Amino acid sequence: xxxxxxxxxxxxxxxxxxxxxxxxxxxxxxxxxxxxxxxxxxxxxxxxxxxxxxxxxxxxxxxxxxxxxxxxxxxxxxxxxxxxxxxxxxxxxxxxxxxxxxxxxxxxxxxxxxxxxxxxxxxxxxxxxxxxxxxxxxxxxxxxxxxxxxxxxxxxxxxxxxxxxxxxxxxxxxxxxxxxxxxxxxxxxxxxxxxxxxxxxxxxxxxxxxxxxxxxxxxxxxxxxxxxxxxxxxxxxxxxxxxxxxxxxxxxxxxxxxxxxxxxxxxxxxxxxxxxxxxxx
Length: 281
Ligand SMILES: [Zn+2]
Known about the structure:
The protein has helices spanning 29-34, 43-80, 87-111, 125-150, 156-186, 191-223, 229-273. It is mostly helical. The structure holds zinc ion (ZN). The site of zinc ion has 8 residues, from loops.
């Protein structure tokens, strides 16, 4: 028998029979042997996780659609001269993004609920709080960037600087979110789902890095020597692949969010079928 420790109190259970109880806290040895699985989690908590993942999947779908429209417009603009952007569409666009980011705050709150059934709950609590705080900062950053962009007397670089800062917060949000979801996947337990989430995170960071380079380039070009029409003709050739990659990563994330949600439903059903072993003295 390999060494196992009690999930509740950490007592070394090596050598004890699977039908025995922990000598320190009476938690069945079999329960610690099985691991801190989601099937033993509170049913309400599992419901919140699934709701949070659904909200994430919907917002990721909407973000992919917005990304597609923005990409199509940047390709069409130099070719046809048709400009999608005027004061009204810029505002509508900003409002849509704000709604999506506020929905992500709701998703973060649903996903970061604490699980009353979790025996090793203490470890993840810092991550749970930061997930909600960072999601809220992200929505505030988006609102602030739009407000400053609309404010005529604002220093010209303020909106651009706040926009870049908001992007950095977005990256932090994605890192925290994926780490949190990986922790959930490990309680299914699915190491494969956890590594797919890790792969999505890496690709998201690559896309975010490329997108940052493209925005800084525009800022630099706009400041030193006004951008020539040649620059704007070449520029979409860089931004379009980045937008396509971003849409691809978003679609991949949707698939993983829905798969995780389905696995959680399966765990919940398994939990209903198999009650945790009763602690009988
Ligand atoms: Zn114990």
